Amino acid sequence: MYLGRVTGRLWSSIKNPGLEAQRLLIVQPVTPEGEPTGKALICTDATGAGAGELIYWVRGREATFAFQGVDVPSDATIVGIVDEIHLGKRKPGGGA
What we know:
Number of strands: 5
Mean pLDDT: 91
Strand order of the largest sheet: 1-2-3-5-4
Helix content: under 10%
Oligomer: single chain
CATH class: Mainly Beta
Distance between the termini: 25 Å
């Protein structure tokens, strides 16, 4: 799974029939600290995420698993909306 931030939405009047009724969102991959990393991509959305939300997404064959019973031709899908991130920084000397 990867972290990302929703930056927009994509509309397409002509598309693969498997993408009918699927939301397509523009996602900017980010680090756990929230810094942009890599190029933006288009993801199908299985969560109802909105603009500006921090999400996690999967790619590859796993991207189709969120749509059980429906054949969605996607190689990147939003599968969760992040509520909080806790970055536990270790103290020098091995303490937590």
